[in-house]
Amino acid sequence: MCNRKVKIKTSQQNGRRKGLFAGVPFKEGQVITIYGGQLLTAKEAESVDSEYLLRISGDYLVDGGPVADRFTEYDQDNDLYLPKPDDPMPAGPGALANAAPQSSQLCNARLDFCNLRLTGIKETDETLPRLPMLVATRAIAEDEEVLFDYGKERVPQSKVHRWLSANEPVLRMGELVDKLDAGAVRALLENMLDRRENSLQVAFLQGATPLERPELFELLGRLLREAPKLWSLNLGEIELSAAQCDDLARWLGESKVTHMFYECTRAGEGVKKGFMDVIRKNRSKHKLWRFTDDDMAQNAVIFQAEKSWFTPWRHKENQEWVRRSKDAKMVEALKAAQEREAGTASEAPPAAAEAAAAAGVAEGAATYRSMAAAADEAPMAAYRGLSAAADEPEEPRYNACGAAARSYRGLAAEAEEEAAGSLLSFERDLPGPPLEASGSVIDSDDELTIWLRMMMLAR
Question: β-pairing, 170-172 with 202-204?
Answer without folding.
Answer: parallel
